[in-house]
Specification:
By secondary structure, this protein is α+β, with helices and mostly antiparallel strands. The protein has helices spanning 17-26, 64-71, 74-83, 122-137, and strands spanning 2-6, 8-10, 36-44, 53-55, 58-61, 88-98, 108-115, 142-150, 155-162, 172-180. The model has no long low-confidence stretch (mean pLDDT 94).
């Protein structure tokens, strides 16, 4: 599994209805995209207390060829033409866990970044992080929880999708406008990459 996100930061007075309309009219185009496990169309708004207006979709790729096809294809090129080419963050996916609300539509997402300390027991630390992902996935209201690893910045990232607009979680909060999940059932269950 590969995890990917880009953040398009918009002006403070940007009309976020433009993003909502874009997602409403174009979001369905990824509903059958090859290799895409799940795409959550995420936004943050200053009006809701966010530090910035942002469009920041999250992708869980079941197949890296799908990720490459998307990044090199017309959909991403159209986004780059409209907003400029964003920096695309991507991470090795370490764990994917379905939660008690797996059958519900997610309404919010939380991203939590954790620095990885310089430790000789890196495998043990990763096992602990995977256990935390399982714990998160067991919380009522969780649609799914994912763990990703960034060896460039030595960070762990927890991404959690929730079926409520006010999740009981710490981290960067996003509103979910829509979800495309053509190959969600192909995402490795549990800590498949450890």
């Amino acid at each position: 599994m590969h995890v990917m996100q880009y953040e398009i930061t918009l002006p403070a007075d940007y009309d976020m209805e433009i993003i909502r309309r874009r997602v409403a009219t174009k979001g369905h185009l990824l509903d059958d995209f090859p290799g895409l496990g799940l795409k959550a169309y995420l936004i943050r708004e200053r009006a809701d207390g966010s530090p910035a207006n942002q469009y920041a979709p999250l992708y869980l790729w079941a197949d890296p060829a799908g990720m490459n096809s998307f990044l090199l294809g017309p959909g991403f090129q159209g986004l780059a033409a409209d907003f400029g080419r964003p920096v695309v963050q991507h991470w090795a996916g370490l764990a994917h866990e379905e939660g008690p609300a797996a059958g519900r539509t997610p309404l919010s997402a939380v991203r939590r970044r954790l620095p990885i300390p310089d430790t000789p027991d890196l495998p043990g630390l990763m096992d602990e992080a995977a256990a935390e992902t399982r714990r998160l996935a067991g919380v009522e209201g969780v649609v799914c929880a994912d763990l990703a690893f960034d060896p460039r910045h030595w960070e762990l990232l927890h991404f959690t999708l929730w079926d409520s607009t006010s999740p009981q979680a710490v981290g960067d909060r996003f509103q979910v406008l829509r979800v495309s999940q053509p190959h969600r059932d192909e995402l490795p269950s549990g800590a498949g990459a450890l």
